[in-house]
Amino acid sequence: MATGEAPSKEYAAKPADSIDLSEFSGIAKTALITGRHGTGKTTLLLDRIQALLESGADPEGILVVCASALSEQDFKLALSKRCSECKVLPQVLNTRRLARDILAESEAEAQTGRHPRLLAEFEYSILLHDLKTTGIKPKRLKEILKFFYKSWTELADEDPHWLVTNEERNLHALLKDELVLLRCMLEPELAATAVKWLKLSPRDSGKGRYAQVFVDDYHLLSRASQLLVHLLAIESLTVTGTTESPLEVFESFPYKAGLDEFLLINPDAEQIDLAESYQSETIIRVRNALLNEEVFSTLPELRPATGAVQLPGKIIVEPSLTPEDEFIAIASHVKALLAAGTEPGDVAITAFNRSWARHIAEILRENGIPVELHYDHMSLGGDTRDLDKSLALRVYTALRLVADPDDATSWRCWCGFGDYLGNSAALAALHEQTASQESAITLDADTGDLRALLQSMALREDPDPGVKRVLALYREGNALVDACQGLRGSDALEQIVLWLTEGETSILPAVLQMPGWDADGLSCSQLVSLYEQRMTFPQLDDPTGSVLVTSPSFLSGKHFKTLLVCGFVNGFIPPRGYFDLVETSPEQQTKIRNRCLHMIALILGCTSETLVLTYFEKIDLASAERLNLSIKRIRAEKGQRVCTILPSELLELIVLVVQ
């Protein structure tokens, strides 16, 4: 659900003045560990957890919260290595899984009236069709929804007057009604709903609480998640954070003021500020040079760690003539590293464009290099408006219905495929049968869901044509579900594809290229859980044995000996819009540049020894336009229009320091 975009000025989230921060205080011992990337914050957290375990603390009374699914995986690996002799280790969870697990308890579902079933991207797109029935123009609708989502993460909706206009109130009521009807939740409301639920039971009840709670990268959490961990801790709460990189990584709208608010809630907290870096001197020098930029002017200067072995660091800039040459150079560089004894897990490649990352991963595989592409969470491609183009989406939706015939969200999607507006007009009448309530805590759990309403509509004698079409789809879905009952996961998938394609077995393998489809012995429910894991809590299959190809934002919290940054050209970084002085105001240009600087700071912060920056100098015009590159000059070359592409203007910030 994370968008990475801030709402417009008109819809900046209203301050949640109604929140009483004293509700989140009362923890006996708190600590805030701050420092720039690579200063050992996570290591200190591991030290404290290890000391607790060695002193005899109950591991089941310790909770570790990480800011993303990837950092959760890394923390588990590091903790198991540290405490290899411990039979039981503390629970380590990412924020999204933590909130979902809290709300999945039967008592929480009964009291909140909500079911923590998160939406996939295509499911969210169908939800939007239902919201468009309000008649609000798409651009304005998107703007108001961003306002809602940011406000939810900051608990602004606890103020009964947070919505001002009737347009806001009506849309918000419709959105909440729809989410209840579909028995699902949006990512921005997940932690906020968990906070509201936990506030109903006192901390001293011990239910769902932990004696000690540790949070890594607290600054990357939304405000709701930051306050949530306060409610979970009984005896102690220790968090790490930095103001160096406020990029959106996993949660929507990370709360920048969270570190200051932590000290407001816990004025007696122990404060530890780390300023020594374990990186090479070259990397440290470049990072300190960035402090000349206004956006980093308040950050402390780094110094090499006392007594640490000096790493042989270097920064390499490798130009190539064409993108193909750049890909070949990257593969050669990685092959040389692995041949010299570097472990695959110590090498990562980052790209600013998804297709660029995909091309890099392909050429690495062609060269026999173990690689894992993790540019984003798993996303099932397709167009919900076209039955042929949405085959994979319909297969996944049918599998969910076989696993759980009461999955209201999947029924909504099933009844919307193949229609340009998702049959939203025909389904709009269903909202009249639901109670219009705004609070996530006071919603009526007995309202019913979409399937119950579809069943009641099927009893009507003379439904209108739109309803007839929806009911026909519903009956077809029920027949398919009945035909797949009792089948194991892979067999059910095969039966679903045969049903949807009317026996076209030739396309079967292509549709089933979704992770886990051929896993022996998995049930339909287990397969659905596997898909949810890939789409909602994405992790690596082999974090130590493969070279990682990823986007810059996924580097947060990770550390590599060698990092290759590819496609370091104008248009990728900064993006093309930055150079359009007609469309982009000076204020917007500054914001774009600052975001790019934060990205560079993140890249430098996760590199311990060697940073390799590669770029290409020319590309054909069609590809340049498709990739949205900033074009310097166009010329004819062998009957083809070719563009000159300049290296990123931010490259000099690094090169001048190295030279």
Brief characterization of the structure:
The protein has 659 residues and is α/β, with parallel strands linked by helices. The protein contains 24 helices and 17 strands. Strands 3-2-4-5-1-6 form a six-stranded parallel β-sheet, with helices on both faces.
Short descriptors:
Rossmann fold, alpha/beta, globular, 6-stranded parallel β-sheet, single chain, 24 helices, 4 domains, disordered N terminus, 659 residues
Give structural notes.
This protein has 659 residues and is α/β, with parallel strands linked by helices. The chain has four domains: 21-104 and 197-274, Rossmann fold, CATH 3.40.50; 119-192, no CATH class; 281-377 and 542-658, P-loop containing nucleotide triphosphate hydrolases (Rossmann fold, 3-Layer(aba) Sandwich), CATH 3.40.50.300; 391-536, PCRA, domain 4. 41% of the residues lie in helices and 14% in strands. The protein has 24 helices and 17 strands. It has a six-stranded parallel β-sheet with strand order 3-2-4-5-1-6, sandwiched between helices. A six-stranded parallel β-sheet has the order 9-14-13-10-12-11, sandwiched between helices. Strands 15-17-16 form a three-stranded antiparallel β-sheet. Strand 16 and strand 17 form a beta hairpin. Helix 8 runs parallel beside helix 9, helix 12 packs across helix 13 and helix 14 packs across helix 21 (524-536). The two termini are 42 Å apart. The model is unreliable at 1-16 and 433-447 (pLDDT under 50).
